[in-house]
Amino acid sequence: MKLKMMYSFLNSDINIIEKKLEETIQAESRLLKQASMHTLQAGGKRIRPVFVLLGGKFGHYDINVMKNVAVALELIHMASLVHDDVIDDADLRRGQPTVKAKWDNKIAMYTGDFVFALALELMTIIERTEAHKILADTIFEVTVGEIQQIKDKYRFNQNLRDYLRRIKRKTALLIAASCQLGAIVADVEETIHKKLYRFGYYVGMSFQITDDILDFVATEEELGKPAGSDLLHGNITAPALFALEDATIRSEIENVHEKMESADIQRIITLIKQSGAIEKSVQLSDHYLSKALEILEELPANKAKKTLRDIAKFIGRRKY
After folding, report:
1. pLDDT for the residue numbered 303
2. Helices 303-316, 190-217: crossing angle, 10 deg rounding
3. Smallest Cα–Cα separation from 108: which of 132, 133, 81, 128?
4. Burial bucket for residue 301 (CB in 10 Å: 0-12, 13-18, 19+)
5. Per mean pLDDT, which of 128-137, 188-197, 215-224 is the most reliable?
6. What CATH code is assigned to 3-316?
7. How many CA within 13 A on the CB side of residue 133?
8. pLDDT digits (tens, 9 = 90+) for 271-289
9. Radius of gyration from C-alpha coordinates of the chain
10. Percent of the chain scored above 70 by pLDDT?
C-alpha cells in the first residue's frame, strides 16, 4: 500500500492545509515569494502535517485549529531544508534545483529565515502557552543540529552517539513535536500527548536512519540526487560509521572529499555495501521502529492509532 493511501481519510483536511500553505507564503517581495513557492512546489510527503492531524484525532479535532499547527510545522521543516541545502552545497532536492542553486546562498538563507518567521507568526493564533514552549524548544534544537552538522562535516572520528544526537535534532524532534502539538491543541490529556511525543521521536529516528541507508542503496532516480551524496558532502551517517570500523575501508572513506570523481565515490559506496554496514544500519532503524510500535500499543484504540502504526512500519521499512 502506498503511503498516501494509509491516510486517505484525511485527504479533504490535507487539501485545506495545502491551500493554507500557499496562502501563508505570500510575500510583498516578488523574489521571496518565488523562492518560497519554489520550495513548496518541490513537494514532499507532508508527513509532519499528517502527524499533527493524527495526534489531534485522539481529542477534540477541529481542522480550523489543526491547520495552523500543521502548516507551522511544515514551514519549519521547509525552512530547515532550504538551510540544509546551503550547508551541504546541494544543487538538487527531490530531483529539482534547490533555492541556492536556482538563485544563490544569500537568497536561500533569507528565504529559510522568512519561512521560519511565517511559522512563528502562524502559531500566535494558538493560545496554549505549552504549545509555544514546545515549538520554541524544537526550533532551538533544530538550529543546534544544523550548526552541529556543519562542525561534523568530514569528521571521520565521530562516534555513533554523535550521529544519533545529530539526527535527533535534525529530524526526530520535529516529528515528535508534530505528534504532540496536534494532540495538545485538541485538548488531549497529558499522559497521551507525551506518549505521542515519544512515538514521534522513535519514528523520526527510524525514518532518518532509513533515509541515510537509502542514500547508499537507492538509485539516483529514486533519490532525486546522486547516490552517496551524504558521504560526498561530508555527512557521516550510520552506514559510513559502521563501515569505518573496518580498518581497510576506513582508509578509503577518510580520503573522501567534495571534488572526488564519481567513479571513486561509487567504488567506496560498493565497499560500504559489502562491509555489512547496511545490515547493521537496518538493525539500528528497526530498534527505534520497535520502540515506536511498543509506545503505540499504550494509546487508546482508534483509526488514528492504526494509521500511525501503518505509517511507522512504512517509513521505517522503505525499500532498501
Report:
1. 95
2. 30
3. 81
4. exposed
5. 188-197
6. 1.10.600.10
7. 4
8. 999 999 999 999 999 999 9
9. 19
10. 97
DSSP 3-state assignment of 90? coil
Picking from 260, 215, 205, 221, the residue whose alpha carbon sits closest to that of residue 236 is: 215
For 60, 280, 318, the CA distances from 232, given in Å and listed in that order, are 47, 21, 23
CB 213 within 8 A of CB 87: no
Place of cell 512546489: 41
- Phi, psi (deg, nearest 5) at residue 130: -60, -40
CB neighbourhood size of 319 (10 A): 8
Q: Specify the 3-state DSSP secondary structure of 193.
A: helix
The C-alpha atoms of residue 167 and residue 172 are separated, in whole angstroms, by 7
Helical ranges in the chain per DSSP H: 3-6, 11-24, 30-41, 47-56, 63-87, 99-102, 105-123, 129-151, 160-167, 173-184, 190-217, 220-223, 229-232, 238-243, 247-253, 262-274, 277-296, 303-316
Asked if residue 133 lies in contact with residue 181, where contact means CB atoms within 8 angstroms, the answer is no
Query: Within 10 Å of residue 188's Cβ, how many Cβ atoms?
Result: 24
Report the chain's terminal Cα–Cα distance, integer Å: 16
Q: Mean pLDDT across the chain, nearest whole number?
A: 89
Per-residue pLDDT at 249: 94
pTM of the model: 0.91
C-alpha cell of 118? 511565517
Cell numbers that stand for 138 in this block: 524544537
